[in-house]
Structure formats: C-alpha cells, structure tokens
UniProtKB/TrEMBL annotation:
This is UDP-N-acetylmuramoyl-L-alanyl-D-glutamate--2,6-diaminopimelate ligase. UDP-N-acetyl-alpha-D-muramoyl-L-alanyl-D-glutamate binds at residues 30, 153-154, 180, 186, 188. The gene is murE. It is found in: Cytoplasm. It holds the Pfam family Mur_ligase. It is an enzyme of class 6 (ligase). Carboxylation is probably crucial for Mg(2+) binding and, consequently, for the gamma-phosphate positioning of ATP. The keyword NADP does not apply. InterPro entries: Mur-like_cat_sf (IPR036565), Mur_ligase_C (IPR004101), Mur_ligase_C_dom_sf (IPR036615), Mur_ligase_cen (IPR013221), Mur_ligase_N (IPR000713), MurE/MurF_N (IPR035911), UDP-N-AcMur-Glu-dNH2Pim_ligase (IPR005761).
Length: 483
C-alpha cells in the first residue's frame, strides 16, 4: 500500500520526503521492522519509540511517523511529523490493513468485571446462529474457530488491526471484543469503528495505572463518547456509573437491569449450583450459570444480541445451551461431598459477587472456605480490601500467593493482612505456597461446604520473579480429590 493512503486520515504537521512510496509493513516495535516498513515512534509507558528511529532505519524502514524529528535525517527515508503518534498509529494501522472494521460488525465490552464472559458468550451465541465470528479477549483470540493466543486484554493497535483484517478476510461478520481501560487511555482502539458498546460495571481496579477512580471512569466513558451515532450503547443501570457512560454519547442508548425499569429487564427466579431459572423481558429460561453477576452478564448478552437484530425467542433458546467461560465460577464436586469453585475474581467487587452468589445458594447450610491472594506489581490499595471482603463473607480464609511477579509473596500477604483487625485474623491462615493453601482448604472442608479458590481462574501459570511456572488451580483440586 502507498504511504499517502496510510496517512490519509492523520493530521500531518510536517512531511519530509515522498509520500507516494510503497509500504510492505507497519511497526511500532523496532525489533520487528523489516525492509520497506513504516516505523511509528510511540512514547509508551515504559520506553520512547523515538530512541529507536535509527535502529528501525538500519533494519530497513523507509518511512518514520514521529512527534519529534531526529537531529540527523537519513536520505531516502520519508519523515511524517504529527502531534500525537499514540493516536496516529491506530489510524495508520487501520488504513494499512484495509479498514477492517468497515467490513465487520464490531461490538466492544468495557467495565471492571464481566468483559470476558459477555464477549465470549456473544461469540458463542452468534456462532450458534451459524455466522463466522471473531473474538478478542483476555483468555484467547479467535478468528472463527482458529485460536490465536492473547497477550493483552486489548492488543496494540497494529496487532489489533492485523487480527481484525484476518477476521474480515476469513469472512467473519461479527467481532466481539473486550475493551480495557488501558487500551482506551493509550488510544490502542483509535481508528476502529464500532457497531455497539456494552458497559458492565465500574469498581476499584488498575489504580496503579490510572491513579484515581475518576481517571479510570473517564477512560471507560471516552469509549462511549467516541461511539458513532449509528452504533448502540448498552449500559447496566444497576451500576451507579451506568448512566454516566451515556451522558455524551452520540450512539443510540439502551439499558439493562435486574432491579429497575429498563429496555432489557431480568429477574432471578431460582438459583442452584447447577444453574439458574431466569426471566428476561417476562420470558423464562434455564441456564447453566450461577449468581446474580452472571444473570447480569447474560442479560447484557441478551440485550446486545437483540440490538444486533436477533429475535428474543431465538436468543433465549441459544442462551439456554451455553456453558460458563473457563475459570469463571467453575464448579467442581469432590468425592468427599464438598464443592470447589475456581474463579478469576481478582478485584474486591468480583470477590463480593462470587461470595454473594455462594451464600445465595448455600442459604446457611454449609461453610465457605476462601483461598485468595493478590497480584504483585499491581494496585496495592486493593490488597487490604480484598482481605476484608473475603473475611466478611467466609467462615475461614487462607491468604496465599497469586502471581507475585517481582514482589516477595510474603510482602503481598502482609499488605492484605494490614486490612484486618486482631478479631478478624482469628479466622485467617497464611500459606505462601498456593498448592499447599488449596490442599489445606480441602482438608478443612466438610460435606456440604464450599471452597472458593479465587484470583487466577483460567490461568495455567504462576508468575514468580519474571518466570511463568505451570500452575492450574483446577488441576491441583483434581489431584487432591484423587488422593
């Protein structure tokens, strides 16, 4: 593709060289640059791409998109200067990969919790309807039935557009995508055109990056502010920030709720460990999901599918066939008569949701033992709150390691314990080794009790000192059950 086509939607402040040259690729990582590529110098959170312009040129870059021109300019290289490369890289990638979202119905899901479940279930439901569908999620990306490993909740703009281009080429009609607050703030989704957006909820998370809840809220809201007028914006009015998301959007607005009058109204009729009986818009359905938070997630899926033109009856029938997403309220029954639940809950609110769901089903007829930790090199402020919420809703809590990353596991545990008083600590055990913590929980459990193993869910590794070691909560539980 010609360079002038790639930069046609970008505000250029200065152009040195020729813009009618042929490009073979586009990169913001100098290590991936090859002959004939455009290199985009992005000022990232860790490194500044401007430091790697000369490296990119040595590797064959024939054009450079930058905010600041290098002091020495190379001959036969075109320099395109812009005010903001973070914004420009998405637009350049969209153009280079043939504007894939103009050929797709792209729906983004944003919020603290529920993104993976909603995006994955929409992917499942539209494949059930017979369409070719794409999925961009924390767990895995899919180009219809081809799995593409995920490294981030939302990939960088170039990888993202390349993936979307492959989805369009494969004949996908719909794509469902988790949209993280980081990707909105870092303009990774710049240049994409959405057919719809869904808001789940907003609670404390990622404050290591956003610093304040207000900044976190603004990042989420920007996604809805930028939706086009022919898109839909579907929001959860059970969350206090639900209507905030719709304040400045140009999109058509819709609401869903388990409590209030709205466009898509849901109600839990029965709740068991095997599933729930629900009522959506006065129509009953039985599902294999558990808990109020999942009823809310399913309601969002129902609403979005209807807004994409599907009949309510067809959507309800499809919902009744779906199974929970890996690592989200995964229920395992032990031969000894207790139940273990593996869940990705790694925020205070997610823990409250899962523990509340367990209480609703148990109705006081069994004890709850919670195994929980907190990730290293992430928001430290949520650690004491997670310990508090666990103790408040459990009979026994075992505080252990999650992904300590580059921190000392005991330091993370101490941060969690700091949120508890002497009385609360009486029901807490600390075991650094996560495998041993899960074993201990199983030894303590009696028939009818429930063990919640929280924090890692679908993850099959534990990251310690920068190294990922194989670790799977469900594998450990099955091993204990077998013994």
């Amino acid at each position: 593709m010609k360079l002038d086509q790639v930069i046609k939607n970008i505000q250029v402040t200065n152009l040195i060289g020729h813009s009618d040259i042929d490009l073979k690729g586009i990169n913001s990582d100098s290590r991936k640059v090859e002959s004939g590529h455009l290199f985009v110098a992005v000022k990232g959170t860790q490194t500044d791409g401007h430091s790697y312009i000369s490296t990119a040129i040595e590797k064959g870059a024939i054009a450079v998109l930058c905010e600041e021109l290098p002091t020495e300019l190379s001959e036969n290289v075109t320099y395109i200067q812009v005010k903001d490369t973070e914004d420009a890289v998405g637009k350049a990638a969209t153009a280079f990969y043939g504007d894939p979202t103009s050929k797709l119905e792209l729906v983004g899901v944003t919020g603290t919790n529920g993104k993976t479940t909603i995006a994955t279930l929409l992917y499942d439901i539209f494949r059930h309807f017979g369409y070719k569908v794409g999925l961009l999620s924390t767990v895995c990306n899919y180009i219809d039935d081809e799995a593409v490993p995920a490294t981030h909740t939302t990939p960088d703009p170039i990888s993202l557009n390349e993936l979307l281009g492959r989805m369009a080429d494969a004949g996908c009609k719909y794509v469902f995508m988790e949209v993280s607050s980081h990707s909105i703030d870092q303009k990774r989704i710049s240049g994409l055109r959405y057919a719809g957006g869904i808001f789940t909820n907003l609670t404390r998370d990622h404050l290591d990056y956003h610093k304040t809840v207000e900044n976190y809220l603004k990042a989420k809201k920007k996604f809805f502010d930028d939706l086009p007028k022919d898109a839909f914006a579907l929001t959860n009015v059970d969350d206090k920030n639900g209507m905030v998301m719709l304040q400045n959007t140009k999109a058509k607005t819709y609401t869903y709720s388990l409590r209030s009058l709205c466009d898509f109204k849901g109600k839990i009729l029965e709740n068991h460990f095997e599933g729930m009986l629900l009522s959506f818009n006065e129509k009953e359905l039985a599902v294999q999901f558990i808990g109020k938070f999942n009823a809310s997630n399913l309601l969002a899926v129902f609403g979005a599918a209807c807004l994409l033109g599907k009949k309510e009856e067809d959507v309800l029938l499809a919902l009744s066939t779906l199974r929970p997403v890996a690592g989200r309220f995964d229920s395992l029954r032990s031969p000894q008569g207790y139940t273990a639940i593996v869940d990705y809950a790694h925020t205070p609110d997610a823990l409250v949701n899962v523990l509340s769901a367990i209480h609703e089903i148990l109705e006081g007829k069994g004890k709850i033992i919670t195994v929980v930790g907190a990730g290293g090199n992430r928001d430290k402020g949520k650690r004491p709150i997670m310990a508090q919420e666990s103790v408040k809703a459990s009979d026994k809590v075992i505080i252990t390691s999650d992904n300590p990353r580059n921190e000392e596991p005991q330091d993370i545990i101490n941060d969690m314990l700091a949120g508890l008083n002497a009385e609360e600590r009486k029901n807490v055990i600390t075991i650094v080794d996560r495998k041993e913590a899960i074993r201990t929980a199983c030894m303590l459990a009696q028939p009818g009790d429930v063990i919640l193993v929280a924090g890692k869910g679908h993850e099959n590794y534990q990251e310690i000192k920068g190294v990922k070691h194989h670790f799977d909560d469900k594998e450990v539980l099955r091993e204990v059950f077998g013994n």
